## 1
Amino acid sequence: MNQNPSGPVIQTHQLTRTFTRHGRPVEAVRGLDLQVADGELVAFLGPNGAGKSTTLRMLTTLIAPTSGTAEVAGHDVVREQAAVRRAIGYVGQGNAAGHQQRGRDEVVSQARAHGMRRAEANARADELLAAFDLTEHARRPVSTLSGGQRRRLDVAIGLVHRPRLMFLDEPSTGLDPQNRVNLQEQVVRLNRELGTTVVLTTHYLEEADAIADRVIVIDHGLVIADDTATRLKAGLGDLVSLGFTDEDDARAAAERAARLAGATVERSGRDVAVRVAHGRDLAASLVTDLAASGVTVARIEVAGATLDDVFLDLTGRSLRESNEHQTHDQTHDQAHEQTHDEQTEKDGVAA
Ligand SMILES: Nc1ncnc2c1ncn2[C@@H]1O[C@H](COP(=O)(O)OP(=O)(O)OP(=O)(O)O)[C@@H](O)[C@H]1O
């Protein structure tokens, strides 16, 4: 058991979860080795079905691993479930829907469930409601709150007992862009100002890019990349797109660009795409070189890599397109394959 406060707050070894679906094994998470340090803000990024929620549900004790181990806040997720639950907050997908209870009462009840006396529970509720800009909505039934307000209430409820670690499963899915940004700001504040370690899942590239210290890209149950967004993108270089009025010029430019160290060059008719590190700096000298040999560049654009480019490079698929093509069938199947473990999940981790 890791009781060292400066050690990782999450440590897994070959963490694995297999489900059985239509009589066949589904390897949702395959041998995850993970370390998260105290105070990090980590995003699991991946398409639907990648294994993000399953990972979170194992780390929050909601479902048991098939094999492998995980320690959260120094406690084993199988043998010391109660201790893990005391140390963490968890906001699952779609909590708080449709309650007739008032928002404030909901927070107070949770605080009471964590053993606080009434006065302390009231004070904690007011503090959290203010922190999440919910004070003026606190006396409305939860069912009348907007999607963004409900999500913020979910996070506030998850924080009632001042957990060291907060797990958020797709916190901004379904929110409009403004509410999404608002929630992201609250999550960053929680991390920066209170020092709470945050582990969230998302399939929004921009979200992972904008707020996470570290992005763990997961696909088919495997971690395929784990680094800061900046380093992941820098590894791919910039995309320099060149346009020519003449196909011979484009051919000559492609040959010249191919001599740049580490460059990948693709030509399509009169267009040339060059993927190269420090493309922004190299573009000007490339244009000058070409001009010196009589080749005029008609159009040039330089774009930094996005996390979608990273995902495409790693998997051959666009994550943005995977999100758009997520089939109704998959969601439908999952809804009908409820396991015993998920029933436990419904009973709630924070109660
Ligand atoms: N209870 C279950 N029974 C059977 N299969 C399951 C169950 N839960 C998850 N799976 C399968 O495990 C795989 C990983 O699912 P998981 O929900 O962890 O993915 P995810 O990355 O969180 O995706 P999403 O964004 O859709 O939540 C998928 O193939 C999914 O269908």
## 2
Amino acid sequence: MSFSVELRKEADPIFNAIFEHPFVQGIANGDLKKEQLIHYVKQDFEYLNAFIRIYGMAISKCKDRKDMEMFNKQISFILNSETHPHHNFCQVADVKYEELQGYPLSPTAHQYIRHMLTVAHEGTLGEIIAVLLPCPWTYWEIGKRLLTEVNPDRSHPFYEWIHFYGNRTDSITTKFCARLDELVKEATNIEKEKMKEHFLLSCQLEYMFWDMAYKLEDWPVKMEVIQS
Ligand SMILES: Cc1ncc(C[n+]2csc(CCO)c2C)c(N)n1
């Protein structure tokens, strides 16, 4: 069994819990409150900014152009394409995308971003791929399952979202898995254990991100944001 297949197997209960989560089920049946969609987009916009920066940190650890190109393509993808599913949520919530940008991070978004930043700062290239992988992998599986199980028509409010994630053929997940499986061959047992740990924690944080949006999670004590 390849390392990536081993990781997917261990994470199976988390992948299933994510699919069963009421926010994901809300995408399936078109039943989400405007505030939940707005909270998700506000937090995800900042999450994607952090993701782009982490790809930049990954590039700084690459030894060859092929790896650099892989991450560079993903930066462009986030900047130019990952905006489509956000626009879908904004349209359903009847808000302008620009109005949802620049908000402070919720506790869970903060935790997830800090987890990825720590690994990007301290880890090897293999550890960085392991920490980033649950992001595309969980969304790809959600998209594919919703596409087959819901098979939405154009009148479905989240038709665009489901097709965007479900229809990816040239998947970054496949590329990351292949690269991780190569890198693990040269890794020590300690590094391999760290890769697994980072991957599983990111899977848990993917679940928590949906939960954060669904429950409109915020800090226990609200602070006034002082604009300079
Ligand atoms: C919390 C959270 N997790 C995953 C994604 C999906 N996603 C974000 S960046 C990217 C491309 C990776 O190169 C994908 C698939 C999201 N939007 N928000």
